[in-house]
Amino acid sequence: MAAAELTLGTFRDPAGSLRIAGDRVLREVRRGHADAAMRFLQSPAAQEWVAQGRLIPTRILREESNTLTLEHPRVFFPSYPWEWTPSAWVAAADLTLDLCEELLDHGLILKDATPLNVLFQGTQPILVDVLSIEERDPASPLWLAYAQFVRTFLLPLAAYVSLGWPLAASMQNRDGYEPADLAPHLSRWQRWREPFRSLVTLPLMLESSGSESAHNTRVQQQPAAAMRLLRGNLGQLRRHLRRIEKRMSRRRVASRWSGYASNADHYSPGDQESKRRFVEEALTAVAPRSVLDLGANSGVYSRVAAACGATVVAWDTDVQATEENFRKAQQRDLQIAPILANPARPTPSAGWRNSESLSLLDRSRGRFDCVMMLGLIHHLLLSEQIPLGEILGLLRELTAGWAIVEWVPASDPRFADLLRGRDELYRHLDEAAFLRAAERHFTVVIREALPNGRVLFALQGR
Amino acid sequence: MQIVRRTALAAIASIEMAVLLAALTKPAYGYVDPGSGLLAVQVGGSMLAGGLFILRSKLRRLFGLTSANDKSEREKQTPAESSE
Fold first, then answer.
1. B12, B20, B46: which to substitute to probe chain A, counting the most A Cβ within 10 Å?
2. Would the CB atoms of A144 and B27 count as touching at under 8 Å?
3. Which residues 25-44 of B have a C-beta within 8 angstroms of A?
4. Among A253, A300, A201, A293, residue whose Cα is nearest residue A86
5. pTM for this structure?
6. Is A137 part of any domain?
7. Across the interface, do B36 and A207 touch by the CB < 8 Å criterion?
8. Structural domain of residue A46, as residue ranges?
9. Are residues A239 and A97 in the same domain?
10. Which of A29, A267, A324, A440 has the fewest other C-beta atoms within 10 Å?
11. How many folded domains does chain A comprise?
């Protein structure tokens, strides 16, 4: 199935706009608005950033009297902050501060600082909005995007860690949280403790005192002093980020699914090994360049696919399990991009006219050489109440060729757990029903029944 | 003579501090909302730190102390000056 033709436009930055058409990413820039950015992009420092995969490559496609057209390669699978794990947020925040610090050495600065300027390749964040780079006023010690960095990175992270507010809520808040959004929810102790003291309490006090500084973007100082102070301000933001990250690791608790792989008592070690071997052999035979792992949990099979040489995108709904998948891939430098995504309730398109960000399925249709659905089908059938034909239909839409699926029979203890007295309703669900639904879209190429009753299939799209 | 020099330096430092705290010259036009309370924290912190920075360098000059940076700046200038 061919990849869907996508078009997406961005328009908020008066300096230019971005258009994704199919596999081409074109950026139109108004003359005179990208001089600073272009100067940096052609410098050896920027080339090093590009080589490290931290800055999107850019080439000039056309130069006309009023516009400059730039072309970027398309990032394989764009994800949005509302789908990221907490560690991905931290990595994107670090990248933003790193680039801002680097730019200061070149007389430049970032004019905005939001997670929306960052995409991921595996677990490596990459800054894609090159128009964020602008000339710096050497006499100003201020970073005008300081508040945006706090609103869109630090406050959502701090609210997640200290108040349990989900990072997924960022879909509803394009420009993050204001200090006033958090203040009523903080205890007295939290209000005077960092990072909230500097990020919420003091700003609110200064705001309500009507301080002249609250509207003053015109501070001018000696260039050496201004640079030192600016670096100090960036250092302060970095320290807040480290403080939040430290608290995040302390509060990492076991969730419903994070211990699933190690506590899978319905799987004997022999069955587990057989399943792993089947997946490994099927992937070796298919040799996919890209794999989508649906219901990836903490990423056991995502890592099998990555070891087979595939670029992997892993979806799961559990924050802690996906976070574990992200951290393992990060530590081992694997090409796995774990995101929080649910095939039964896929992320919708968002923003102005629902066209600023693409829906999960619009980003995914036909993008993967192979889609894996292991230990998930009974959840979709019983918990989400999706009919078999629909599940196989979606699977066919997502894959460009192959699918590896684990069929969970009604006799399986996990199937029975989810059935909860609805036996009559789902009595018809057996392997034969699965095969009837599968054969409308796929040909069964390999079948292997495990001793625990589960059946593994390698399916090729018709 | 030394007392006059020191008094003059102290006076200059005070004037510079006053100018710094007023600090209203060139407007900076931002692309994003710079915030209000969060901007005030940044502006206040920068003014305070900037004031201390200038005061410290004045005090160093007053007491005849120079920082490593000042020394290296002077060393950098010396060959250029000698070539002129």
1. B46
2. no
3. 25-44
4. A253
5. 0.87
6. yes
7. yes
8. 7-72
9. yes
10. A440
11. 3
